[in-house]
Write a structure and sequence with these properties.
By secondary structure, the protein is mainly β. It has one domain: YVTN repeat-like/Quinoprotein amine dehydrogenase (Methylamine Dehydrogenase, Chain H, 7 Propeller). Helix content is 5%, strand content 46%. The protein contains one helix and 27 strands. The strands form six sheets. Strands 3-4-5-6-7-8 form a six-stranded antiparallel beta sheet, with no helix packed on it. Strands 1-16-15-14-13 form a five-stranded mixed beta sheet, with no helix packed on it. Strands 2-27-26-25 form a four-stranded antiparallel beta sheet, with no helix packed on it. It is globular. The two termini are 28 Å apart.
Length: 376
């Protein structure tokens, strides 16, 4: 998930400038390992003056040309769409904006239900597997669960700023984080805290705030990305740290996270210090770097959402200039998805594939979401 606040866009841009200026400091706060957990450190790459980004060329020919099929707009106009999520059968999609989440029909975009007067901007959203509840993580106000039958708040997990969530595949537990280094694991039914994960137990005085979360497909691991580019892999059975990846010196922030459907790869979306977007794909087994994907725009959006298609054939990433698609297993670059409307923004805030992998839904900074058909 990503950080795209709030209701007032002028305030947003001021905050972005402050945060970007602070990233240089955040990236230099690298601490030593105090426990016995394996530390994985990438090879340092010298920082150079960035070259202009050229339009990437596809590596392979597309069998199907992606096309925009549906445009979804919040029922309250003028609000950034911060988060998107399909329900388990793909018939509904939730789009989170400022103090509002709309649930819409994916065939025609008709409104099914609205959850209104929410605590703040909806930075993360997820359906329960049975479709009876909706989870929301807010820029201000914590992480909550809502019963869809009446739209009422059911469980309040915690408060805080800049919250993130990841729901387990079986819907029994939820991992959350906020503007602090800790990650919490909760029982969804009653909000009972199962465990608090502390990075500072392994890196002395570690205090970089958590920016993204992702559950592995089997539910045994949770990956947590942090502001300075560290990625921690936690075991949800033993509650131990499996390993952590320490960023190279020119790589800062970990705003997007996604496991591949087979659980073998972990994609991390972030930015280097010179503001160009980059996707790094790691082997989950040992944390080694498998791919570096740089066919990307430059913008400093602090988003970089990533998503694997459920069939394991595509990786999608978003930035300020559109959506990029790669084909697995070799990560061949396929295409860039750009909006035809010249008055619209290509700034992508969130991504999610439909359960059948045919469609890709994207939230955009300019108060709408789009559904793209990306496979036949």
């Amino acid at each position: 998930m990503t950080h795209k606040y709030l209701g007032n866009r002028h305030m947003i841009f001021a905050l972005i400038i402050i945060l970007v200026l602070s990233t240089g400091l955040a990236c230099n706060l690298l601490s030593s390992l105090t426990g016995q957990v394996e530390e994985i450190v990438e090879e340092t790459i010298p920082i150079e003056e960035p070259e202009p980004v050229e339009e990437p060329e596809p590596d392979v020919e597309l069998a199907f040309i992606p096309e925009q099929v549906l445009r979804l707009e919040p029922t309250v106009s003028g609000q950034t769409v911060n988060s998107v999520a399909y329900n388990v059968d793909g018939s509904q999609i939730a789009i989170g904006s400022y103090i509002l989440t709309d649930i819409m029909d994916t065939t025609d975009g008709s409104l099914i239900q609205s959850l209104e007067d929410l605590p703040h901007s909806v930075m993360g959203v997820a359906f329960s597997p049975d479709g009876q509840a909706l989870y929301g993580a807010f820029a201000l106000g914590g992480v909550n669960r809502y019963t869809l039958a009446d739209g009422e708040l059911d469980v309040d997990y915690h408060g805080g700023f800049d919250n993130n969530l990841a729901l387990s595949p079986d819907g029994e537990t939820i991992a959350t984080g906020s503007r602090s280094p800790e990650m919490w694991l909760w029982q969804v039914s009653d909000g009972e805290l199962i465990h608090e994960f502390e990075p500072a137990d392994y890196i002395e005085d570690y205090s970089e705030w958590l920016t993204s979360l992702a559950y592995s497909p089997d539910g045994n691991l949770v990956a947590a990305g942090h502001w300075d580019g560290h990625v921690f892999l936690w075991d949800t059975n033993s509650m131990d740290l499996v390993y952590y990846i320490e960023p190279e010196t020119d790589y800062c922030s970990g705003w997007g996270l996604a496991f591949s459907p087979d659980g073998q790869l972990l994609a991390v979306g972030g930015q280097r210090q010179e503001w160009d977007d980059v996707i790094k794909v790691y082997n989950v087994s040992d944390g080694s770097l498998a791919f570096v994907l740089e066919e990307f725009g430059r913008g400093g959006a602090m988003d970089e959402p990533v998503a694997f298609s459920p069939d394991g054939e595509r990786l999608a990433a978003g930035g300020t200039e559109g959506i990029y698609l790669w084909q697995l297993p070799e990560m061949d670059f396929l295409t860039e998805l750009e909006i035809d409307d010249l008055d619209a923004s290509d700034w992508v805030t969130d991504l999610t594939f439909s359960p059948d992998s045919r469609y890709l839904a994207a939230g955009y900074w300019n108060d709408y979401a789009l559904i793209w058909q990306v496979q036949e």
